[in-house]
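Chapter review. Work through the record for Metallophosphoesterase before attempting the end-of-chapter questions.
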Amino acid sequence: MKRPPPVDPARRRFLRGLLTGGLAVGTLGSASVMQAYRFGVTRHPRPLPGLKRPIRIAFLTDLHYGLYIAAGSVREWVSATNALRPDLVLLGGDQLDSRMDAPPTPLLTELQRLQAPLGVYGVWGNHDYGSFGLYSGRQYGPYRPDWPAKREELRHAFARHGVTILRNQGVGVRDDLHLGGIDDLWHGEPDVKAALEDAGNRARILVSHNPDILPHLPAGIQLVLCGHTHGGQVRLPLIGAPIVPSKYGQRYAMGWVEGAHATPAYVSRGLGVSGVPMRNLCQPEITLLDLTVSG
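Structure tokens for Metallophosphoesterase:
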């Protein structure tokens, strides 16, 4: 197995970008730190071709439990999600952001409180792979050659607490809806075809942590949900986000975008923080999708 890079490249680029742009932590000040922990709910009513009856989906992504996010924040997110009464809850990756020598019991205990009659499903993101030990960093410690075993151990731990991780897998959550989830684009081996196998005539929703998969989608997907970018995390008036962790720059920074074949996709700003414990003009969000029967 090829040895991975010694540090998390995304985090290194983010910090370099902040310093190059003159946006060091001291400059942004305590207000930006406070913004990092004040979340909201964004609501999106939208028809979805193929549905036979409406469905409400809560999408939570980029929790980043570990370095800057503790169980108290997750508890608030879960309580707010339950109050929305979703039919289905989806987690968009980067649940973890610290070395996981043992399962993260405080995080899992909170996630187990999520209430959704159609279940709770998630995918892995790049920081999850750091937590497995695939690459090193301040919060991850040294590279561990047994990281695939750690990934599997954590998958089982999430499952025991009611969260099914989909890694290039799909599930028929209803007779009219197929849900597919793919592996992380940067550190995994994403396979959209495998995730959508056996979808039949159901409407298809795909969860991908990284939106950079969007230009490479096959036809026939009704909706894609992504995270990863945090909306840039630090945004400036008139300028927007100086740094977006995407090879497409601002194209998939946040909000509603289009992938190949005009596939609609939503890129969430996420809930946690990465690199530095701050946000600016980029509120953390729980995404609520009220999907209806297409006319």
